[in-house]
# Entry
Amino acid sequence: MSKILKISIMTLVAIFLIGCGGEDPRAEDKAMMVEKELEYGHITKEEAECMVNLVSDFLSDDEKWATIVGMYDLTIEEQFFLSMKEDPTADEQKMIMVSLETMALLPKIDSECNVDAVELSMKRAESVFENLDDIYD
# Structure
């Protein structure tokens, strides 16, 4: 009887530990990224979550993931002009390269998230330029 009890307890503990280990280590980063995407505009929460999840799945390398997450520390204007800098820093260069890598996701974002990422970028670029016009007027 005690052997059956031990096995039952060990099974419950194993199930509990497996359940605890299933948490997404990127969950906080993803939530922040979704909120930023919503701030940038022209996207729904569901679309933003879908896009962020696709990027997370695509970037299995934690260093590249950290680079993308770091881009969200920049304003939308800073992100937009990043690739136009004449002499980007090493970190900025890495951001540009990882961003270019994620362009391979564009067809998947379109089909799975129903988001035309190019059109989304164009709308956001218009907003950036409108904001700049407002600043300099």
About this structure: The longest helix spans residues 2-21. Helices lie at 2-21, 27-40, 45-58, 62-71, 76-82, 90-102, 106-113, 117-136. The two ends are 83 Å apart (CA to CA).
